[in-house]
Design goal:
Length: 251
């Protein structure tokens, strides 16, 4: 049985750090895999990454890092395809209630826990011919909590059988609640919601993740109880480094 290192870390009570990949290029993914992150999350919801690009990027990462994919929507075909392509975790946006969470989890899990179709393609080749037998305990189904409706139904989402984790999208959540587009919240009332979600997830024994944009806030989130944090995106880091280099040249 192949080890999902994220699940192992969570069982030990530890947190993991992920970079976010928007650039649809295997060479970028390969470089990011050498940087020391625990996870690389390929973002198919926002940006140019399509399915073929995502599979090529996962292949380029190699075994040193755990590949996650954020799918474009709560739609079973793409959820199953990215798992067949080798994703060890799937992050699903805009999961608002128990029924939507059940649909997402069902796409991630083989019967009897779900309805994932057997045909593991690349996953069966790289993780072993017996992948289907233990995949339900291997892959991570991570539902995004990022709307007022999701917050109102948080406990029923957290109680969904087979759900492995939740992931808070703070920008969409703040827009939904207060029409405020912001990240890395440090003031009330959004900070209170961020802290509350972590507490409630912990009470249900469900690891919680949070999208953050700085190492400083990622460390703060871990202190709140979050066990999956983002600290950087490939395009954001590239743009920042290019600006720094250009501005450093005196001319």
């Amino acid at each position: 049985m192949y080890e999902n290192k994220v699940r192992t870390a969570w069982r030990a009570g530890k947190a993991v750090a992920s970079a976010w990949l928007h650039i649809a290029n295997p060479l970028t993914a390969e470089s990011a895999a050498a940087a020391g992150f625990d996870v690389l999350t390929i973002d198919m919801q926002h940006g140019p990454v399509d399915y073929e690009s995502a599979v090529r990027m996962m292949a380029a990462m190699g075994p040193a890092v755990t590949p996650f994919v954020r799918v474009p929507w709560n739609e079973p075909t793409m959820v199953q395809r990215v798992l067949d392509g080798g994703a060890q975790g799937v992050i699903c946006p805009m999961v608002n209630n128990r029924a939507e969470c059940e649909a997402f989890v069902g796409a991630c899990k083989y019967p009897p826990l779900g309805f994932r179709s057997n045909g593991a393609y690349r996953a069966g080749r790289i993780y072993g011919a017996d992948y289907q037998r233990w995949a339900n305990d291997f892959v991570i189904a991570m539902a995004m909590v990022e709307t007022r409706e999701a917050l109102n139904h948080l406990d029923e989402i957290l109680d969904t059988p087979g759900l492995d984790a939740i992931f808070v999208g703070p920008s969409d959540l703040s827009i939904s609640l207060y029409n405020l587009n912001a990240l890395d919240h440090v003031t009330a009332p959004m900070l209170g919601h961020i802290e509350e979600i972590a507490r409630r997830a912990h009470a249900h024994n469900i690891p919680a993740g949070l999208y953050t944009v700085s190492p400083e806030y990622a460390n703060r989130a871990i202190g709140m109880g979050y066990q999956f944090v983002t600290t950087a995106s490939d395009d954001g880091l590239l743009a920042a480094a290019m600006r720094t280099a250009a501005q450093a040249i005196k001319r």
